[in-house]
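Recap from last week: sequence in, structure out.
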Amino acid sequence: MWSPDDYLDKLYTATLAGSLSQTNKADPFSTRQQKLKEGLMAAMGSFPTKREPLQPELLERSDYGELVLEKLAYSTYEGMRVPAYALYPRERTGKLPAVLANHGHGIGQRAALGLNPDGTLAADPGIHNRFAVELARRGMFVLVPEIIGFGDRRLREHVETDPQASSYSCLPIALQLLMCGMTIAGFRVYEAVRALDYLEEREEVDRERIGTLGFSGGGLIASLTAAVDERIRAAVLCGYASTYKGSILQQPHCVDNYVPGMLHLAEQPEIIGLLAPRPLFIEAGEQDTVFPVQPAREAIYRLKTKYASCGAETQFDFDVFRGGHEISGRKSFDWLKRKLS
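Predicted structure tokens:
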């Protein structure tokens, strides 16, 4: 009797019924995409009007098998430096396609390479499946920035009390940003935009062939960055594509998934669909309990329909694999290489 469940269900339905994605259906495809993109930018919070100089810095370079491994840093916001890894083939001819690699929750950028918190090689590749290494071995330049709130970019007290990086600083950072009229999703997306700026400056990179891969929370960053920045020519989203109703509104998730007013714009598949008609690959695990497979299949169906509606059926693909909340890569790694070739 006193439960708010029914009210919240009706609020979700009413909000989505009046959303931008539902009220502008008569507009041409490109107009709908542009209006939704503008709404998304407003919801995430404004980006700085002036971009800080990147001031790139090479910290260390070493051989990593047949690859070159670099530790580097560059600036995003004023006074904000970002550590990152770069991986690329030691032997190459011409410029390389590039991938902005967005890790998920965990120990940070090291997880994308299958490393321990201390930088040594882990015995188990983990749920990230060393995806940055696998992409570089396929002949791509891979940039792995440390996302704010993880690893070395946690709040000082978390770094000092938890050197194994098992804790995150997402919530306290997000709450302070909200009080300042910003969102942590928008903050992370802007830093991803600056990562693209960095990639464009690398002499090894073909700036016309830049893609992205994001896992879990990194999928949020990859999808929203690709939505607002068309320098991303192809995207792979692993363990993320779903519906808001079927995942983040059904169970607690990291605060970065909750962008104020998002349902006034669209459900998640339509937000991801801002990539269309650019190439998009969705990967989902049948036993994923974080982004369950049923709403993932619904998102795949809706995205497939959207790509068909704009004549880009061949630019959308997916893989529902036997596994949990993890990166598979059995099809997606080679797909991304082909789309950026």
